[in-house]
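Input structure tokens:
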């Protein structure tokens, strides 16, 4: 078994920061928040206007959940008040409460359980956190058996808003679901199919996730690949596909924005956006620690501590460690070895420091790092029965027949940081976000997944037996020896000026990426070596505004001009005699600009229901692929920009007096020149190529609901339907070896793609959760279950019977007990993932045999979590 030793000692920067901050935390329990007093005078004006006015005097903004303040009038008062005292006075006898979403934003909503709110108010008296809730002093409701769904805020429009008022199809993942699906050591793919229209897969193990929204994605496995789904982590775009695999831990929420998001988030967002927001530093002392142990010696530990270092400086340190032992044996003749694949040691840390010298200015400093030592995706040679997508007889999840298993390795090292500066005046907010990311990685795998049994001159030895490979072996590696990404955004936004509000800004991006591609002989010696470099510069200007046409109708629109330029070079350093003597550098440059826009309208149909429509345009910049490591006439592959136009209609409703929420939308899109990855039609030099298909159309719907049947029983349900079709009679690509292909074949032996749905695009996605809790003793005993479903998908543009995944249903279960010990909240639980032990083909390789990739098996485990 390979040794996977802890690597914190490799990063002395993190250790020193953690130790110094930990020393400062020892005094933060005594740190108080000194609230200033302001001269307040309120007349008998509408309550919502009074709240907005008072909030501005303290440098804050107000977010209303539904029309909770409609028809209410403020009670006149005057005098010197602190912020909380003023809010208490305004909300007295209104049946409303206020909640701090963050240091700058206060939500106003209906009051809920009296006992819970009183406890929160007392325990958080030292200072406002990101999740504090306060009821008006004399209007709290008595506890009852009636349940209420949680109000949700999002930042889909770069402002903190109520989810129900945003004219975009947005899903939020947080709370029980996020904890349940991530606790067993899973990587970012745990989100796949847990949200309508979202699919995530990878052929690089725990790195390089590929995202698909509404069927739109990119299968390109090159390390300079671009994707039509952007990922933003703490306000910084993660452009490299390796950066997108950063672990998800200590996050406040995950937002998934469906449809083009080009106006506010820029290029490479035609399908949508996945946005992660970390928990921010707090002035009061808080934190947590959790530890989980599961099958296969899977260990997951994470924790965070947050608090004030001074009256104006607070900090938060978050740590994660996930490990698993190798558990897959190889039984290739002459290469037998036990426990050689499948393990990993994945560690990450985030350190945040927040400086708030006054109510108008804040500076948030973020440093994050990751160190992964793991196994690449495990390929299994000749594992698929020809003419079907069934596994062959004798297939075993924990056995492979690789002759290079002991050389398989994957390492990823990420370091990054950001500085977010915010300056708030009465009418405007000014924001600057500076980000820097750097990654190094190396991944080597036995891609054919087996051992060679025949040659080109005598192919008779290959009969398709499990684990065998004909003619030639494929062991390759890709690495990033050097990489840097720098981003800068400046933004100005108005603060509730009246009927019209707006924001505008400038964005700059630059990336320098080195790539190594290596091929190996059967004995592991190097036979081919290719070096690539890609430099990307991009910039954009944007503006967006919303106008209240009437009390019930709001119109929002925006424009963004983007410019993208790439300079690319590839050069062979080593090749075989069959590749000829081509060692000259190959160059490619691309440059393009585009205008993205959106226009939407939101209509308040009733107090609890909003209707909206949205038109939008987005684009993905040109892409270059240079997998020219072999062949005597290699060619670079270049794809032009893709353009999407989309329209959607939706409704967002709160029902049953806040006990239920249902959001629904229908959409239609057309894409021109969509970039797709195909089996190469080149005679020489590449296994894959980029193609632009003339037109792609898609339509479907998404629906999500949450229902608090009682305060003890809560359920959620999500479903999506996506119908996509490629319309291009001219694009022709190569077929695959040993496949039963259904595509039409032309006179050159190439196959067409016209009429096909997009690859990796399930028509149906469904998800369901249920939580039941019951007071037992001094705590709560609860049961939680979550299920996800995805219909059949093809793995590529080739419509082959062998290269597809059957409909897949996966479930998880969790049984836990919550209780308090002094000031600590404790949770102990047992859980299971993939509890039906479903074995599914989730990927395939057609280079020289029907190699397959299998899903993760059933896991049983237990964990404990302590919060303070």
């Amino acid at each position: 078994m390979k040794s996977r030793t802890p690597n914190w000692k490799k990063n002395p920067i993190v250790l020193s920061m953690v130790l110094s901050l930990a020393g400062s935390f020892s005094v933060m329990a005594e740190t108080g928040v000194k609230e200033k007093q302001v001269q307040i005078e309120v007349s008998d004006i509408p309550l919502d206007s009074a709240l907005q006015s008072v909030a501005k005097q303290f440098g804050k903004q107000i977010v209303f959940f539904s029309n909770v303040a409609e028809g209410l009038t403020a009670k006149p008062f005057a005098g010197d008040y602190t912020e909380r005292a003023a809010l208490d006075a305004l909300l007295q006898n209104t049946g409303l409460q206020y909640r701090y979403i963050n240091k700058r934003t206060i939500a106003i909503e209906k009051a809920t359980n009296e006992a819970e709110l009183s406890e929160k108010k007392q325990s958080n008296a030292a200072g406002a956190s990101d999740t504090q809730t306060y009821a008006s002093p004399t209007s709290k409701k008595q506890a009852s058996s009636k349940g209420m769904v949680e109000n949700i805020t999002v930042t889909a429009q770069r402002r903190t808003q109520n989810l129900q008022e945003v004219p975009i199809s947005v899903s939020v993942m947080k709370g029980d679901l996020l904890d349940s699906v991530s606790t067993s050591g899973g990587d970012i793919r745990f989100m796949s199919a847990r949200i309508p229209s979202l699919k995530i897969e990878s052929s690089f193990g725990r790195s390089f996730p590929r995202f698909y929204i509404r069927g739109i994605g990119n299968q390109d496995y090159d390390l300079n690949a671009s994707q039509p789904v952007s990922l933003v982590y703490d306000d910084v775009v993660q452009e490299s596909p390796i950066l997108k695999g950063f672990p998800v831990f200590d996050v406040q929420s995950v937002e998934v924005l469906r449809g083009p998001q080009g106006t506010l988030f820029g290029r490479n967002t035609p399908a949508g956006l996945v946005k992660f927001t970390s928990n921010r530093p707090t002035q009061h002392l808080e934190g947590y620690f959790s530890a989980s142990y599961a099958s296969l010696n899977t260990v997951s530990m994470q924790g965070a501590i947050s608090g004030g270092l001074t009256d104006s400086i607070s900090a938060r340190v978050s740590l994660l460690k996930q490990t698993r032992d190798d558990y897959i044996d190889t039984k290739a003749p002459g290469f037998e070895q036990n426990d050689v694949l499948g393990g990993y040691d994945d560690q990450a840390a985030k350190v945040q420091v927040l400086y708030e010298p006054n109510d108008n200015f804040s500076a948030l400093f973020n440093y994050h790092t990751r160190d992964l030592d793991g196994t690449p995706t495990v390929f299994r040679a000749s594992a698929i029965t020809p003419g079907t997508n069934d596994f062959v007889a004798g297939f075993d999840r924990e056995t492979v027949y690789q002759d290079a298993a002991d050389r398989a390795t994957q390492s990823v090292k990420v370091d990054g940081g950001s500085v977010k500066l915010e300056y708030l005046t009465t009418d405007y907010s000014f924001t600057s976000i500076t980000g820097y990311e750097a990654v190094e990685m190396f991944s080597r795998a036995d891609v054919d997944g087996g051992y060679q049994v025949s040659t080109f001159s005598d192919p008779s030895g290959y009969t398709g037996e499990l684990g065998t490979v004909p003619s030639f072996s494929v062991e390759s590696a890709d690495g990033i020896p050097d990489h840097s990404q720098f981003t800068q955004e400046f933004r100005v936004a108005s603060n509730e000026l009246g009927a019209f509000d707006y924001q505008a800004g400038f964005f700059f991006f630059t990336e320098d990426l080195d790539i190594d591609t290596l091929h190996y002989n059967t004995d592991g010696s190097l036979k081919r070596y290719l070096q690539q470099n890609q430099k990307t510069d991009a910039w954009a200007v944007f503006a967006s505004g919303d106008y209240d046409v009437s009390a019930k109708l709001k119109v929002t629109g925006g424009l963004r001009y983007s410019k993208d330029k790439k300079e690319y070079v590839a050069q062979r350093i080593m090749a075989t005699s069959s590749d000829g003597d081509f060692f000259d550098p190959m160059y490619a440059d691309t440059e393009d600009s585009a205008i993205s826009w959106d226009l939407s309208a939101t209509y308040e149909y009733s107090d609890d229901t909003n209707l909206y429509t949205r038109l939008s345009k987005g684009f993905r910049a040109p892409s270059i692929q240079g997998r020219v490591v072999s062949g005597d006439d290699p060619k670079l592959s270049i794809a032009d920009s893709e353009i999407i136009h989309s329209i959607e209609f939706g409704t967002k409703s709160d029902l049953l007096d806040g006990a239920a929420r249902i959001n629904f939308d229908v959409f239609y899109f057309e894409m021109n020149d969509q970039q797709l990855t195909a089996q190469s039609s080149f005679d020489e030099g590449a296994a894959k190529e980029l193609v632009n298909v003339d037109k792609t159309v898609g339509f479907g719907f998404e629906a999500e609901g949450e229902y608090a049947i009682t305060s003890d029983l809560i359920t959620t349900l999500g479903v999506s339907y996506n119908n996509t079709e490629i319309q291009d009679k001219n694009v022709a690509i190569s077929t695959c070896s040993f496949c039963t292909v259904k595509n039409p074949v032309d006179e050159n032996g190439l196959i067409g793609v016209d009429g096909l749905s997009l690859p990796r695009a399930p028509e149906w996605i469904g998800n369901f959760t249920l939580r039941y809790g019951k007071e037992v003793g001094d705590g709560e005993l609860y049961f939680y279950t979550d299920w996800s479903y995805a219909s059949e998908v093809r793995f590529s543009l080739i419509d082959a019977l062998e290269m597809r995944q059957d409909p897949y249903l996966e479930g998880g279960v969790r049984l836990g007990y919550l209780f308090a010990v002094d000031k600590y909240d404790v949770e102990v639980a047992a859980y299971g993932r993939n509890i039906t032990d479903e074995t599914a083909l989730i990927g395939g390789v057609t280079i020289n045999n029907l190699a397959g990739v299998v899903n993760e098996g059933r896991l049983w485990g237990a964990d404990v979590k302590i919060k303070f």
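Residues 134 and 666 are 37 Å apart (CA to CA). The first helix runs from residue 12 to 25.
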